[in-house]
Specification:
The protein has helices at residues 3-20, 27-40, 54-62, 75-88, 125-132, 162-179; strands at residues 44-48, 67-72, 94-98, 113-118, 136-144, 184-189, 195-200. By secondary structure, the protein is of the alpha/beta class.
Length: 201
């Protein structure tokens, strides 16, 4: 990996994301996530919600021995992710799938992952979890971003715009379920926009 080319690509990605209103992880959030992953040392990572490939590249940078499979349903974002990942030369370690993660045949993916990072439709976190946790290796960890949803997760539902209430309700239900889940040790970290860490027992 050419460090200069890598940094140039990240700058281009941030510019594109800002201009095209593509949500990518903020610096604080991705910094904390990669720190958690560096501590865990997963050999294989599954990401649900590639967007333009920013977080996948940051994870690949932090974990030079890890392989990453990442799923994106939006064709334009998928194409940009392919372009940006290709520009860094990391396509050997990052495999990106143009699929709807809720409809994808998981047989297309690897046999198991040490870490799963969920950062797609916030109102569907529980469905993503239920579908993909079978691919999590024993002792593996699932990470989910945006648990605070920019402060909305702690606001009374009646104060939230009507079009976002179902999403927030689902996000809260998912958090409560994971906190009480008998098969996972779960903690909510007050970093970035809130990252929930669920370690398989």
């Amino acid at each position: 990996m050419d460090d200069k080319q890598f940094d140039t690509t990240l700058v281009a990605m941030k510019k594109f994301a800002k201009e095209q209103h593509v949500p990518i992880m903020e610096d604080e959030g991705i910094s904390h996530l990669t720190a958690l992953l560096t501590e865990q040392k997963p050999a294989s990572i599954l990401e649900i919600g590639s967007a333009i490939g920013f977080s996948a590249l940051k994870m690949a940078q932090a974990l030079p021995d890890a392989t990453i499979d990442t799923i994106e349903r939006d064709e334009q974002r998928y194409q940009k992710a392919v372009e940006f990942i290709g520009a860094t030369g990391l396509q050997e370690r990052i495999s990106i799938y143009w699929q709807d993660a809720l409809e994808m045949d998981i047989a297309l993916l690897g046999d198991g992952y040490d870490a799963i990072f969920i950062d797609a439709a916030k109102g569907q976190y529980e469905r993503f979890f239920e579908k993909y946790e079978v691919l999590l290796n024993e002792g593996g960890t699932i990470y989910c971003d945006n648990m605070h949803m920019h402060g909305m997760s702690s606001v009374p539902l009646l104060e939230i715009p009507r079009r976002k209430r179902t999403m927030i309700r689902n996000l809260r239900t998912f958090k409560e379920r994971m906190m009480a889940h008998g098969d996972y040790d779960t903690k909510l970290l007050e970093i970035g926009d809130g990252i929930i860490v669920c370690k398989k027992r």
